[in-house]
User: What shape does this take?
Amino acid sequence: MQQSDNQPAAIDVVLWQYPKNGSDGERWMRSLSPNERERAATYRFERDRTSFIAGRYLLRQLLSAHTETQPDKVVLLADAYGKLTVEGRDRLQFSLSNADGLVAVAVTSEYERVGIDCERADAEIEAAALESYCSSDERRWLDQMPAGERPRAAVALWTLKESHLKALGVGLRGDARSVAFSWQDGIPVLVQSGEPDRQWHHRLLESGSQHVVALAVRSQSGAPGIHLRMFQDESRPSE
Assistant: This one.
C-alpha cells in the first residue's frame, strides 16, 4: 500500500515528532489563524496547548503545499461534527491526529474519505472500555493473544476504529461498536454484516516512535497508494 518517494502518491501521510518543550511555539503560531490562536490560549496545560499548535502548524504546512496558498491564508471551515474542510477545495480531503509528542496528517484529493488516528502504544485501556467499543469477535481475538501483546493490540484496535469514524466525519460522536474488524494475513479488514467491506482499506503504519498510527481510506478502485514520510521543519532557524 505504501509507495516509494519517487512515485506519485494518492495519499500524503506525514508524521511529526515535534519538540514537546514548545520552544518553537511562537513561530508555529504565526502560521495559525486568529481563531486558532484564540483557541490555543484557552488550553489550561502547556502540553495540550503545544499539541494543538503543533497539529495546526503541520496541517497548514501541508495544505499550503497542496493549495499553493500561504499557510496562514488557508481558510479552514468546521462542520457540526468539527470536521475541517478547506474553503473552495471540496475535493481535498484530510485528517489530523495528535497524541503526546506526535502529530499525524493525511491529505488526498483522489479519494472521498480519509481518516487518521494516533495513540500512545502504552495507553491503558480498562476492561470496561473494551466492553464498550469491541464486538464479541474482537474481544475473543484479544483474549486469545499472549498477555504481553494484548495491551498494544487493544490500542491498535481502538486506533483503527477512531480513524474510520474520523473518515466518516463523525469522530467520537459515532458508535465505535458499529465498526468491527477481522484480520486477513495480518491486515485489518472492516466487517459489515459479517462480510468484509472491500470499499474500505485500513492500515497500521510504522510511526518510528512509541505510537500506534492507523489510516482509513474509502476506495472503490482498489488499495490506494500512500507516501509516508516524517516531517522536517524546514522553516526552523539554523542554530
Q: What stands out?
A: The first strand starts at residue 11 and ends at 16. Residues 1-8 have pLDDT under 50 and may be disordered.
